[in-house]
From TrEMBL, chains A, B:
It holds the Pfam family LacI. CDD domains: HTH_LacI, PBP1_LacI-like. SMART domains: HTH_LACI. This is LacI family DNA-binding transcriptional regulator.
Length: 347, 347
DNA sequence: CTGAAAGCGCTTACAG
DNA sequence: CTGAAAGCGCTTACAG
């Protein structure tokens, strides 16, 4: 808020506000200067109703002369909308989410909405202030019951879009790639390259995307007549590099090492490569590694990563469009975006 | 906003609001249920004035029964504060900023403030809606005139803290490391290792930190009796990996290659290493590389990065504390936090 | 096309 | 300790 001066007197009438020290001018100051009512100023500002051209010019002149911008609290209190969208992400540190947010921002910026970015995790539950502040939510995070941020939310029916992390059986609209198919493509690629002992480096399965990718992995192995060896499935604690390093540790003590690892995130793949190298293994000569996401880092890391590319910007953009559609009263239709296999050095 | 139902009738009195379909209940509904006035409910909610213990319990019971949460717009409109802080970052993709934001969040979360995260750049100027929405700003970004987000801001005197990117001669309080000294430590380290031809990979100098680090670089060379060779100073377009790769390109065509590169960001250092490798140079054997920041990636990348470590979480935390102090009426005192040299494989 | 006025949901002097 | 009521700065039927 730009005006922090507490209200002093209850007798301050509209026009006097413009003399209110360094505080922002109010709509009544603009009205007075332009010689019109506040209703007219409001109409000009919001283009909500036709206004005489000459009147409009006077108002606009007054607005710019006073440097007036509407008080968003007053506006939202009356209009019932804030033009604010909450973006819920599990982790600011994972570049995957950052890229999606870039996509989200590119659309909101030109549609008059602003975003409010928040990290959501089970340990640090969502700030409930946000819920009543925003017109809708785009969630990249996993929430036990997404619709129930806090007790009362189910009732309030906050418009909601799931991005990448979604539940197919839910009624929440979503935008995502086909995680299962992405995993199938990755594992099939490794099979085609002659690998038969393929490990899976995955994340905690409260994430749908992790579960779906595991299913794709297992399905592909079975379809190829191979058995799924539980010893070759490693679950990382999170998706940071260190989590990948740690999770792969157990693999290295196996007598019969896998010849390939499919990691469900590029960050985990990079951690895996690091761990393999520390153990004196070469990638891809001794062990091939395939990642998921295609972060910018994937082509810079050495060896560069073979990975499943997600259209991250497009995911973000599509999520906003879906949400904005909902806000406009359209019925949401979920979308699957295409992924691609990018072959580089690591596998 | 959770209640999107437009107001239908002007005769809806307070209590009726609770029957208002699926919308959030209002303070008058709570008051009615508890058998007190809205003033008393407000006092209980904000602990702003003593309330009889038994009354308080009745109010609290009503609040939880109705799942009531205050409408933040109405609250802010009257109270004059939003408990929202704007965090301005140049680039979501650079993990350096993500780590600082983590630090910021850890403090705001427990102090009742929420953050609003926005990317600011010259090409995409700040969303002016934010300015009137927040109680204060923490900026990691470079702005020509930080106090003048838009025309009228100077007047409004939005409390402001600069984090890492600051101007020593400004009156804006800041939290940062000593960029010049960090560069001195990096370059001196390379000199101590016997390097005499040390290149600088820097960023556009509208960033103070980039300018300060160049100054430290030049100073250290001169103090060692060396001349500064302009051919060895490369300015990257941004701070992404690709910018580092591109900027180092020119260096590689030099007849007399440097034996070391000091990059003013880890992301640039990684780009530089990538470019060197592509050109068939070994790091550190042919060319040593020292970075800046100490991202998580710095110890995972191969070769791991020798770098100047910034206390990123602490920078974020200190920035919030400084801003909150200002909001509480304290006079801000800027702080310099310590950095350290971390020696690893790259140089 | 325009204005007077009610109302959005809170907080806070003011007066008990 | 508590309540009636004004006021925060907007928007929007309603009535010209």
């Amino acid at each position: 808020m730009t005006s922090r001066t507490p209200r002093k007197s209850r007798s301050t009438s509209g026009i006097a506000a413009s003399a209110n020290g360094p505080s922002a001018s109010s709509i009544s100051a603009v009205a007075a200067l332009a010689g019109v009512s506040t209703a007219t100023v409001s109409r000009v500002l919001n283009r909500s109703k036709p206004v005489n051209a000459e009147t409009q010019q006077r108002v606009e002149a007054a607005v710019s002369q006073l440097g007036y911008r509407a008080n968003p609290f007053a506006r939202s209190l009356t209009s019932g909308e804030s033009r604010l969208i909450l973006v819920l992400t599990p982790d600011f540190l994972n570049p995957f989410f950052a890229e999606i947010v870039q996509g989200i921002e590119s659309v909101t910026r030109r549609s008059g909405y602003s975003i409010l970015l928040s990290q959501a995790s089970d340990t640090a539950p969502l700030d409930t202030v946000y819920e009543r502040l925003v017109d809708g939510v785009i969630s990249l995070a996993h929430l036990r019951d997404p619709k129930a941020l806090s007790g009362t939310d189910r009732k309030h029916n906050l418009p909601w879009v799931a991005c990448s992390e979604f539940r197919p059986d839910d009624d929440i609209p979503y935008v995502s790639i086909d995680h299962r198919q992405g995993a199938i493509d990755a594992v099939q690629y490794l099979l085609n390259r002659g690998h038969r002992r393929i490990a899976l480096l995955t994340a905690a399965e409260d994430y749908t995307w992790a579960r779906q990718r595991r299913i794709g992995y297992e399905e592909t192995l079975r379809r190829a007549g191979l058995t799924v060896d539980p010893a070759l499935i490693r679950v990382a604690r999170g998706t940071e590099y260190a989590d990948g390093i740690e999770a792969v540790g157990g693999l290295l003590s196996l007598q019969d090492l896998p010849t390939a690892i499919f990691a469900v995130a590029d960050t985990l793949a990079i951690g895996a490569i690091k761990a393999l190298r520390r153990a004196g293994r070469r990638v891809p000569e001794d062990v091939a590694v395939v990642g998921f996401d295609n972060l910018h880092l994937a082509q810079v890391f050495e060896p560069s990563l073979t990975t499943i590319a997600q259209p991250m910007r497009e995911l973000g953009q599509a999520a906003v469009e879906l949400l904005l559609g909902q806000l406009a009263g359209e019925k949401p239709v979920s979308r699957m975006l295409p992924h691609t296999l990018v072959v580089r050095e690591s596998g």
